[in-house]
Each structure stands twice: as C-alpha cells, then as structure tokens.
Amino acid sequence: MKETRVASRYAKSLIELAQDEGKLEMVHDDMALIRKTVDENRELGLLLDSPIIKSDKKQTILHEIFSEKIGEMSHKFIDILVSKNREHLIDDVAEEVEQQYLLIKGVVQAKVISAIPLTGNEREEVLRVVRELDGRKSVQLTELIDDSIIGGFVITVGDKQIDQSVSGRLEKYRQQFSKNQYIADF
C-alpha cells in the first residue's frame, strides 16, 4: 500500500509538470511505452527490482533502451526515480500516470468479466450501466472471459462492483444457508 502511494505521488508530480509544460500527451505516451516495455520484458522487470544491481547501471540500461524513444522530460523523470532509489517503481508510476491521465481526460475505466464473449447489444448495455454508475460519458471497457463465473457478468468500475454472475449468486445462497439457525450443519 505504501509503495502505491509513493508511485501515485510521483505520477501526480509528473502529470502536473507535463500539464504546465504543455507536454501531457507526450509524457503519457512515453509512460505507456515504458510500461509496455517493462511488462513485456521479464528480465528488465527483474533488473529494476534487483537490490544487487547498482542504480547507476540500471540508469545506463534504461537510457540505452529508451534513448531515442522517449522525450527529455521522461528521461529526466527516470533519472529522478533512479537517484532516489525508486527505479523499482517505474512500472507502478507508469500505471498511475495512465490512471491520472484518463481522469484528466474524463474517461472512466471499467472491466467486465463474463463466461462467454459479449455481443454488441450486451456491450452497449454494459457501457450504458457504467455511464449511469460513474456519470462520465467516455468509457474505456476491458472485457475478460472467465468460465468459472458460470454465467452472467461482473462489472468493476473503480471501487464499485456489480456482480450478476451465477457463481456470485450461488455463493450468496451458500452463505445464507450456512447462517440458517433452524437447520444445524446444513
């Protein structure tokens, strides 16, 4: 939890500076590239997390990887993270930058989990529900398939969750029956 707070603060500072300098889009794109690169390269993630490898070596490697791909502001930001021995947070900071960027742009992120792929009408209905729930017009929807929910769907928007899955209902019934005071050991 503490590390998430730290990553959020670094991201907020970077976003504010980028807005002041008129480079919000560029910094957002840079952080998305950094996040994608770290996520797709396990070795890079392990290197950044390693306490054995010295920070200056990590900084050199990051500069070699991103030298022509990201802007000066993002390079300087990486230098700050490394100088504070926070390079292991680079992926978390990049994720927080994405969250805060979407908030600034008025986009809500939502996730829907269903047992089978959604049809066009179902997708539109989910988008409508998310818009009503959050109040923002623009929705970035992530669809996941999980056959363990048996049927129905689970929608997550921020810290709110709507569970209309068969497995969720079965779990509610199981809890109700286990609390039944009139029938022992049911």
Please identify which CATH superfamily of the largest domain we are dealing with.
N-terminal domain of the delta subunit of the F1F0-ATP synthase
Helix and strand string, N-terminal first? HHHHHHEHEEEH
How far apart the termini lie comes to 39 Å
Q: In CATH's first tier, which class of the largest domain applies?
A: Mainly Alpha
Descriptive terms for the model:
four-stranded mixed β-sheet, Peroxidase, domain 1, 4 strands, elongated, alpha+beta, 186 residues
Overview of the structural elements:
This protein is of the alpha+beta class and 186 residues long. The chain folds into 2 domains: 2-103, N-terminal domain of the delta subunit of the F1F0-ATP synthase (Peroxidase, domain 1, Orthogonal Bundle), CATH 1.10.520.20; 107-178, no CATH class. The chain contains 8 helices and 4 strands; from the N terminus they run ααααααβαβββα. It has helices at residues 2-21, 24-40, 42-49, 55-66, 72-83, 90-105, 120-134, 166-178, and strands at 107-114, 138-145, 153-157, 160-163. The chain has a 4-stranded mixed β-sheet. Helix 1 packs across helix 6, helix 2 (24-40) crosses helix 3 (42-49) and helix 2 (24-40) packs across helix 6. The longest helix has 20 residues, at 2-21.
Write the layout of secondary structure elements.
Elements: H1 2-21, H2 24-40, H3 42-49, H4 55-66, H5 72-83, H6 90-105, E1 107-114, H7 120-134, E2 138-145, E3 153-157, E4 160-163, H8 166-178
Parallel strand pairs: 1-2
Antiparallel strand pairs: 1-3, 3-4
